[in-house]
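Form P-L/3: holo structure prediction, ligand adenosine-5'-triphosphate.
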Amino acid sequence: MSEPFLSIESVSASYGNISALHGVSLAVPRGEIVALLGANGAGKSTTLNVISGLVRPTRGTVRFDGEPIHRLAADHIVRQGIVQVPEGREIFRDMSVRENLEMGAYARKDRAAVARDLDSVCDLFPRLRERIAQKAATLSGGEQQMLATARAMMARPRMILMDEPSMGLAPLVVEQIFETVRTLNREQGITILLVEQNAKLALSVSSHAYILENGEVVLQGASADLRHDEAVRRAYLGG
Ligand code: ATP
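OUTPUT (holo model):
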């Protein structure tokens, strides 16, 4: 097997004396969508935060494109090409849609290319073009998720970490968001690590999935196989 694009090896992490991850290992092949599933508090967000440099692992390594990144600062990791779309969106609510998108490109110097990318993310999300001058706080939940995803695209990422994009959104909007996840992956070749509570949907878009419980990987496999796994069906797919 060729070397994974991103790999986490035996990573442990804690918040003060609360241990959140114990020896988590996972691999994301280049160009694929990998899902990370698990109940509330299982350690999914912590795993993403370790990759993006927001939480320092106490043990283990994180490698991206062959290089160790677990000692790099978060802004350096963004420049390496890994961008996180955080849980709850965390858009800049008082800024316009355009300003939010421009913030996504803050680390880039190529202003002409930034302007072109702004145009192309608006092609991907026409709703954002219609609302380009509007304050982000006035967008619907689904539009805010689109904005957070589009803002991540403005950094020209090679990999996106998505934290529960479906949270709090109506089923139809969730379908649209997942359709864009597929498009980003297929048309732009972006590798995606997707954290989701909606296991059914996550297993339908990903090639491989890991299941976390209490800070440990308890199951992993091809998503198509996990969809039919009896234990997964009982615990995550509603029987
Ligand atoms: P959720 O779906 O609820 O976001 P999760 O799987 O993403 O859950 P994490 O947010 O990674 O889980 O949390 C893992 C563990 O670490 C939990 O026990 C949580 O209470 C704890 N934890 C997370 N963030 C902090 C923090 N900032 N300070 C203290 N403990 C934290």
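COMMENT: Residues 15, 18, 20, 38, 40-46 surround adenosine-5'-triphosphate (CB under 6 Å).
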